[in-house]
Each structure stands twice: as structure tokens, then as C-alpha cells.
Amino acid sequence: MPGKRTDVVVIGSGVIGASVALELARRGWQVTVVDKAGGAGHGSTSASSAVVRFNFSTAAGVATAWEAHFGWRSWAEHLGRDVGPLARYVRCGMAMLDVDVAPRSVYLPLFQNAGIPFEEWTSADLSERIPGIDVGRYWPPKRIDDDEFWAETETTLGAVYTPDAGFVNDPQLAAQNLAAAARTHGAEFRFHASVRGIERAHGRVTAVTLADGSRIPCGVVVNAAGPWSTRINELASVGSDFTVGCRPLRQEVAHVAAPVGFGADNHAGICVADMDLGVYLRGEAGGGLLVGGTEPECDPLQWVDDPDAVTAHPTTAVFEAQVTRAARRLPALEIPNQARGVVGVYDVADDWTPIYDRTELDGFYVAMGTSGNQFKNAPVVGKFLAAIIEQTENGVDHDERPVRFVGEHTGLAIDLSAFSRKRPPGTENSGTVLG
Q1: Calpha distance 230→24 (Å, rounded)
Q2: What are the FAD dependent oxidoreductase domain coordinates in residue numbering (predicted)?
Q3: Are 151 and 158 in contact (CB under 8 A)?
Q4: Beta-carbon-side half-sphere exposure of residue 72 (alpha carbons within 13 Å)
Q5: What is the pLDDT of residues 85-127, one digit of tens each?
Q6: In this structure, are residues 177 and 87 in contact, taking their beta carbons and an 8 Å threshold?
Q7: Confidence band for 38, pLDDT divided at 50, 70 and 90
Q8: Average pLDDT over residues 391-416
Q9: Section 260-277 average pLDDT
Q10: Rounded CA separation 144/322 (Å)
Q11: Which of 271, 348, 372, 429 is the most exposed place for a label (fewest CB within 10 A)?
């Protein structure tokens, strides 16, 4: 069944795909977005904790996060159109607790170069700024059924505090805002549309075919399919020159009541990144607390073969492990008897750094490996892909001459080869969810 031709098909309407659609549509491309879900942001985006932080281990990672946060802080201006109710950025600050695997000496010079405000806290400062916190150093993280988890410690840790960090209060709404803005520039969104194939001719993509038998002729495809991205690459027969792979990973985030005093005057408390114990904490206005894991080595990662087969219900074992670790750090935190939270599937690159790049198939581009740490960068990721696509389609080889993107808010130059599919694996980044 023939379909209307478009310039670009974006596969996936999460916060990344919607951002790509907006930036391409703004530049005059005719964009069609297809998604197997029923609406924008219904996949991995809806399960995101939506934390906005700047703690990355590479200059490109730090500069990208700092540039992107200005988009969140001026969300209406970033969208540029009236799209109705907006997602909101909550600036609550983040305390990154000291940990040997990501020492201050690695990222503070990057903060200084980027102009990111920060404060260095001693353990005494940490106790004062987050009342009731246990400042003990317990590294490495341990399973809660390990007797050593409960052992006392005489050593303490401090933290680095970034006052401009925070979170987006409704990640799904953020994706919907981007999609609505893209529509005002002519982008079309087709939901309940599963991709069945990628057609090619003479080494170039020519069309996307859908499960309902329809066909969308196009000259460019952007794979932003989240945990389904590797499957989409297989349909396109691309990936033979990738040095970095991606796999779907099941994740859980626990929802509990914050301890009394964690947030004041109905405001969310400070975000806490606690790799020392293996968790992160993100408050919510009204007294809620989100608790997620940082993938410590003592916990088996839940890799999955089929993202569609993942159960959406949180498990007691993961809930208890995460919340008990959080209660070790915040002793006043009560551990509920019943698991409550959200389950999502992340698209995780081998080194936890995304791939924003072209591929060996002309016209086929990827924005993949994004889950776990890239929601925060969505306002700028669309601009990255637009720059890569426009340069490549104009005959400049992004492999040989990578785009050097200059942030409009910060003026920082970002070498997009840092997100290349051909990058040397594990040479600079931390190899953790911190990136």
C-alpha cells in the first residue's frame, strides 16, 4: 500500500525522537514520525526519573548536559510555540557523593572549563545541608543479604553540589510538548505503527514499510527507537562497523515517601547521586521520593531479549534492595512492605554513552543507546542529529570530519565524534550510568 512521500522518517516518538523531529521540521524538512505505541513518550521516556545533572566523565558529556539544561529551564522558549500545558523544570540541586570510581578530580576540571557552578562539601557540610543523612563511606556497594552491608564504618565522605541540577516533573509530557511543537512545523505523527522493514537501493535508504502493509518513501531515516533500536538496525542491515553495541535492559525505580525534613515547605529535596551505596534519590514536591539504582557490580543486570515481553510490575527483591540502600543513607526513611514504583526498559550502550551518528547505509542515522542518562540531553540531541544529517546529506563525511557543534546558550564547542558508532570503546568514559 503506497504512502505519501516524506523527507525523513523518525522511528520512535520518545523524548529523543520527538526532539529530532522538532529540530528537523524547524529546518524545513518534511518529517513523519512512526511509533508502535499509542502516543509520544509512552515507551522508555515514561519510566524516566528525568534527572538533570552534569556529572559526566568526558568533556563532551559535561558540555552537552550543561547546554541542554538551559533548554529545560526555558522550556517554553525552547519549544517556540504554544503547545498547551508544559512540563516543568524543578531546580533542586544535586549532591554527588564522593566515590573512587568517579573522583572529583575527573569531573571538576570539566565543570570549571564549562563554567558550571559547584560547591565542594566536606562530610560536615553534607550533614548540615541534608539533615539526617549518614555520611559514612561504605564502598563498594553490597547486597543487602551480605552481612558486610550492615557493618559500621569509621570513614566518611563528602560531596560536590551543583545548584543548577534538578529534574523534569513530567517526562512523558515533555515528549508530548516536543511532538506538539514539531506538528506546528508540519511534522506528522503516526502511532500504533510498527516498522516491518527498511528498503534500500544502490546503498541508500529509500522507504520504511509498516506492519499494516503501508510504505513510506523517504530519503532519510532516523532510528530513535529506544530499546527496539538494535532490532531496527537489523531490519536495515546496518551495524557491521559499530565498535559499540546496545542492549535492552530492564530497570525499576521505587516510589516511597521521603523522610520528614528531606524537603521543606512542600518543595522537593536535593537530588543525591550515591554510587557509594549504589542508588540515586530524587525528591518530588509533596513529599515523594524516587529511588533508582546505579548498576553496582553486586547486582545482576536484567538484560532482556524482547522489550515487549518485560513485565511492568516492580519486584519485591529489587524494591527492597534499592530502598534499603537508600535507608542506609537516610536512616529515617521507612521501608514499605509493598513494592511500588515504575518499570522501564533502557537502551544501553556498552559504555553507557549514546550513539548519535550516521551509519554505513546512506541516509540511515541513529540516536540510540540513550536510556539511563540521556533524557536530560533531549533539548540538544535533536540539534545534534539535525547538524549531522545536514552536513552528511550535503556531502561532508561525518566520519572523517565530525560535526563540531557550538551550543547557543553556552558557546561551548562539542566534538560529536564523542558519540560516534566507531569510537574506541571504554577509553574515556566511566563505563557506568554516569557516562
Answers
A1: 23
A2: 7-387
A3: no
A4: 31
A5: 999 999 999 999 999 988 999 999 999 999 999 999 999 999 9
A6: yes
A7: very high
A8: 98
A9: 84
A10: 9
A11: 429
Q: Please, what is the average pLDDT of the chain?
A: 95
Specify the pLDDT at position 268. 75
Q: How far is Cα of residue 249 from the mean position of the Cα atoms in its chain?
A: 13
Q: Is the pLDDT of residue 432 over 80?
A: no
Query: Is the pTM higher than 0.90?
Result: yes
Cell of 213: 502493509
pLDDT digits (tens, 9 = 90+) for 196-225: 999 999 999 999 999 999 999 999 999 999
pLDDT confidence of residue 266: 59
Quick check: 54 and 65 in contact, CB under 8 A?
A: yes
